[in-house]
Amino acid sequence: MSIVAYLALTLGGAGLTLLARPRPSVAQAVGLVALALATLAAFAIVPGERLTLGSGDILGTTAYGRAFLVLGTASGLLIALLGVVTNAPRDLPVVLLGGFGALGLGLSMASPVGAAVAVTVGALGGALMTLDGPPAPRRTEVAVLEFRAVAVAAALALVGLAWTARPIGPLTLAPGAFGLAFAAVLFAVAIRFGAIPFHLATARLADAVPGPALPMLAAWAPAGLAVVALGWIETGVLPAGLDLGAERAVVVTIGLATIVLGAVAAWMQDDLEHLVAYTIVSDAGFILLGLTVLEPSAGGPTRIFILVYLAAKTALGGWAVALASRFGTRRLDDLSGWARRSPALGIGLALVVVATFGLPGLLAWTVRFRLLELSIGGPLGVIALVGASAALGAYVRLARIGLRPIGEAVAAGPGDRPVRGGGPGGLAPVSIAAALVLVLALVAVAVSGGVAGAAEASGAGGTPGASPGTSGEPGTPPGDGAPSPGVSDGSETSPPTDSGGPSFQPLPTP
Amino acid sequence: MSPFALGIGVLVALGALLAVSVRDPRFALGGLVLAFALGPLVAEPLPGLAALLARVVAAAIGGELLVIALRGRDVPALGSPLGIIAPGLAAAAAFAIGLAAPGLGGDALGSPAAGAAGAAAIVLGLAPLMAARDLARRTVGASVLVLGATLVRVGLAGTPGGLEQLATGALAIGLLGSVALILGRLSGGTMPTGEGGRPSLSRTAPPMRRYGAHPIVDRSPAVEPAPAVEPARAADRPKRAR
Q1: Does B175 reach chain A within 8 Å, measured CB to CB?
Q2: Which of A446, A459, B111, B239 is most buried by its number of CB atoms within 10 A?
Q3: Tens of pLDDT, residues A19-44
Q4: Nearest CA in chain A to B115
Q5: Which candidate, A382, A161, A179, A189, places its Cα nearest to that of A285?
Q6: pTM (predicted TM-score)
């Protein structure tokens, strides 16, 4: 069973790395090797497998799950390497391995409730990353805030998911309670993403957590819960056919506020990591919007947007780490002329922008429009679209700062010319960091464009402006297109999706 | 509902009550570990022996982490300023409601005692989580809240399968381990203190940056510069450095 190998490598690797913790260099090597092997294991996951355990539990694999884990573990490996050359805390590989192990377990479990428990375990491990380093009141306070956010979200998700983990029929007699369960799960996702007005923990997270760990904590871990929630909506909420207009309106409002205000907040920051954190928060609003669309056609675009979002935000986080490390400051005012000094990082930022917003014809572009259209539509959708474009402001500001005359701090830092140093292969760490950032950015661009190619090849390519429920829905992420357990085995408990794309959660129950 | 399940449910609620109400950290954290250890026993039907053992061992590991992290340290006092009576009454009311309304609008697949104990734990965990600025109480309250949610889940949807039990055990270790680490950091006497001399959230904070949202007390240290490299050569230097 291919997923078992992945889980053994990630969770076992995390354990071994922890055991080797007293010897930092050994622990670092063990962590990197485990991440590399886990990446290979993620590639080797065979979609459509089912493993029934002795207790009756089912572990299953899907094409989407494989794409999620391949992208995550490979990005994690690159981020860990970036951490090595930028002197990130030694526990970063442990957090990455443990986090992706928990995500892998959660995304392969049949029960949405069990999946929520598993992804919460991973989030807890990440929250403790805030305590890495010497004791400081700031870190402790942020750790408590993050711990509280994870706990509240977990409690909401567990109760909400459990409420519908029963025969749905009688539950429809209490539509109010059903709506509360729906809202609870979506609020849990919003809290984990730090959506406005729940952004306090995420905002402070950027102050305490090491830069390389920020995408894992602020994007990947919450995204796992979002995928679980999406699968639950498709199988636990849609079949009930209830009118949840009020609950949807509340969450759509939160999603819109997150997109617009998050973008404005990112634009106003003068700290690089704060800017990254708020752009992560801002784009998460689209995921919230996708979760509010109670139509089978929304699952595909939302899943694809999650992949694009994760790839782009990981690349942005890596870029910020490389920039801050090279010039020794996170203050934007001190980074004047960074793009002149380091054109490689300038190209990296440009690629991140392309991956984030896409270009006409790329799926990143298409799914943004599609999610807005499905969730809002009409004149309000146009307003939302204008608001969403405000996110570009933060990137434009970064570019303008980069093109200014070179400032003192930037002048003191190394340029792009390869210099010899103490890094692997004799290259200077800054050169390796820039190369890693370019690889991350290229991966992100490939995801936002390659996903589209794969989807179109499978006959489910998305088209801008297609009306809901029509056949032109993006549905298949990169992968081999093998049928997933959620749609292919004819299980009575797995309602068919008419999207034609793989449904990730939940897997059929026996 | 069997008397055994009801009795265990009462014990779990009492453990949660101790965790959030007693000032002495030893009793408070002991109550927390007790609640996590007894939690799986409140299910009907009981989980398999292996799952049960895994959950109990997980709680024991969590307790051991607390002992390791906090032994010999000056752990800040816990407990509610309201004492134990008021939270106890609130928990009793929640327990009664949980018993009276299992299923919350549908048929409960699990033990009503689990739902009742879960409701009591949620009520007990919410108060410090939402109202207290005391960081230690917030941390313990968050753990009690998640414990309550897992119990409500058992009450609503029945006894979890083995894999979910294993994941819940890992969750218990994660929660108790987090409590241990955070309380360990709060024990150093380096935190700003609030009412009663307890470590608390910083109430006021000087602005750190022009537009920084939600500034906190001390500014993050400057990012460490990149590892040493050869100094930039003249040809590599900017022409118009200002």
Answers
A1: yes
A2: B111
A3: 998 888 899 899 999 999 999 999 99
A4: A159
A5: A189
A6: 0.84
